[in-house]
């Protein structure tokens, strides 16, 4: 067994060392040993040539990044969040979920800019203001914003049109939209936002997908990041977050370069490809590859989206994913807590909910107690279908709530990656 584990990590290390990320890298080979929890050591910073013929870049974040203090024995890191709606309703529901956890604070607030129109991608102040107020109430809070790279982002735009859009973006045609977004974020006091730009770009769902023209996509990303970093007062961090697995294209083919990426994230739901957690770890472009590549490039990691999905109420997945998070210490992680992915809002996932609650409840602390589950029950008291269908590959844009207690209803149409 020890020989097999050593062989697997030797193969993984060789693979990462072989990935220049300057030309199309080879697809990773699956590991040949069962899952192990050994953390690979980070490689020394190295230089690489810009993919499009520019000057050499260094493999370090452009600004210091603080990692949460956590070890596997401590449980998951403190910086965790939930997605329970894109507007003020998401903030209120997170407060209720915190009570369900016995008062454990939810320190990460995450939402999505609507991707229908450029005017919304520019970040309307009335949309951002509730999150700015939430962020300002506690200096330990972190605001994470998913930012589309194209309007009509979930309208099934054909590859030919996507290719034209990416090439226009690579020429700087859309930079003014992102300059305005950056100015608005800074003006609202959200100058240290984590920007999850063009998420799940390796899939087929979004107009901002990479596969139709990877070279143009990378130039476009760099143009956006350069534009937003030029705004005075900003301290943004940019999170490159593909979905787990190969999907339409191996996500290494889309990596825009170390100088323009601060965090390497991954969206990972309990669904194929990956029949069980071990397979999710060792599959090509899976969880192990993610942490290996990030370590080799001197980057911290994140899990902007994760949760249950096609494998149903799966406490083993929940336990293993929380262990993985605790071991690999991401900057932050955020569970999608609506049906079918969640543990609080979605009442059908009771076994997984208990695993999650046990991991985050402060009940083991002296004098601490738990809030009864029904004291912080979801306001729907039902299936959770009232929440927008935001999740893995193929989800509707989050909608603002229509009343104080319910969000607009959308039918989920998620397709498995790959």
TrEMBL record:
<feature type="compositionally biased region" description="Low complexity">
    <location>
        <begin position="389"/>
        <end position="402"/>
    </location>
</feature>
<feature type="compositionally biased region" description="Low complexity">
    <location>
        <begin position="57"/>
        <end position="68"/>
    </location>
</feature>
<dbReference type="Pfam" id="PF02156">
    <property type="entry name" value="Glyco_hydro_26"/>
</dbReference>
<keyword id="KW-0326">Glycosidase</keyword>
<feature type="active site" description="Nucleophile">
    <location>
        <position position="305"/>
    </location>
</feature>
<feature type="active site" description="Proton donor">
    <location>
        <position position="200"/>
    </location>
</feature>
<dbReference type="InterPro" id="IPR017853">
    <property type="entry name" value="GH"/>
</dbReference>
<dbReference type="InterPro" id="IPR022790">
    <property type="entry name" value="GH26_dom"/>
</dbReference>
<feature type="signal peptide">
    <location>
        <begin position="1"/>
        <end position="17"/>
    </location>
</feature>
<keyword id="KW-0378">Hydrolase</keyword>
<keyword id="KW-0732">Signal</keyword>
<feature type="compositionally biased region" description="Acidic residues">
    <location>
        <begin position="403"/>
        <end position="418"/>
    </location>
</feature>
<comment type="similarity">
    <text>Belongs to the glycosyl hydrolase 26 family.</text>
</comment>
<feature type="region of interest" description="Disordered">
    <location>
        <begin position="23"/>
        <end position="81"/>
    </location>
</feature>
<feature type="domain" description="GH26">
    <location>
        <begin position="27"/>
        <end position="381"/>
    </location>
</feature>
<feature type="compositionally biased region" description="Low complexity">
    <location>
        <begin position="32"/>
        <end position="46"/>
    </location>
</feature>
<feature type="region of interest" description="Disordered">
    <location>
        <begin position="364"/>
        <end position="418"/>
    </location>
</feature>
<protein>
    <recommendedName>
        <fullName>GH26 domain-containing protein</fullName>
    </recommendedName>
</protein>
């Amino acid at each position: 067994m020890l020989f097999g584990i050593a062989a697997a990590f030797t193969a993984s290390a060789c693979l990462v060392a072989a990935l220049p990320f300057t030309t199309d890298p080879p697809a990773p080979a699956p590991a040949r040993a069962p899952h192990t929890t050994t953390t690979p050591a980070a490689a020394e910073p190295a230089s690489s040539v810009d993919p499009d013929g520019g000057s050499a870049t260094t493999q370090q974040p452009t600004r210091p990044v603080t990692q949460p203090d956590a070890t596997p024995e401590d449980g998951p890191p403190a910086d965790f969040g939930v997605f329970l709606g894109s507007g003020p309703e998401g903030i209120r529901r997170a407060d209720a979920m915190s009570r369900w956890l016995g008062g454990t604070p939810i320190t990460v607030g995450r939402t999505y800019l609507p991707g229908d129109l450029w005017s919304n991608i520019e970040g309307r102040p009335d949309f951002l203001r509730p999150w700015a107020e939430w962020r300002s109430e506690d200096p330990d809070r972190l605001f994470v914003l998913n930012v589309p790279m194209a309007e009509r982002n979930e309208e099934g735009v054909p590859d030919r049109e996507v290719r034209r859009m990416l090439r226009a973006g690579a020429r700087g045609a859309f930079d003014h939209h992102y300059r305005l977004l950056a100015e608005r974020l800074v003006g609202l006091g959200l100058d240290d936002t984590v920007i999850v730009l063009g998420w799940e770009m390796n899939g087929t769902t979004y107009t901002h997908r990479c596969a139709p023209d990877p070279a143009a996509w990378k130039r476009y990303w760099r143009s956006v990041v350069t534009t937003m970093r030029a705004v005075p007062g900003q301290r943004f961090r940019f999170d490159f977050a593909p979905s787990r697995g190969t999907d339409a294209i191996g996500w290494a083919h889309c990596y825009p370069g170390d100088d323009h990426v601060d965090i390497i994230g991954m969206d990972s739901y309990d669904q194929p490809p990956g029949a069980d957690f071990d397979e999710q770890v060792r599959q090509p472009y899976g969880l192990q590859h993610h942490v290996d590549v990030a370590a080799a490039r001197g980057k911290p990691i994140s899990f902007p989206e994760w949760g249950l999905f096609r494998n149903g109420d799966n406490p083993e997945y929940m336990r293993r994913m929380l262990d993985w998070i605790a071991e690999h210490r991401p900057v932050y992680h955020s569970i999608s807590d609506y049906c079918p992915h969640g543990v609080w809002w979605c009442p059908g996932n009771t076994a997984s909910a208990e695993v999650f609650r046990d991991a985050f409840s402060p009940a083991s602390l002296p004098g601490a107690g738990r809030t009864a589950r029904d004291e912080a029950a979801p306001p729907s008291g039902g299936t959770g279908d009232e929440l927008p269908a935001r999740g893995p590959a193929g989800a509707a844009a989050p909608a603002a709530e229509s009343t104080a207690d319910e969000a607009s209803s959308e039918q989920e149409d998620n397709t498995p990656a790959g």
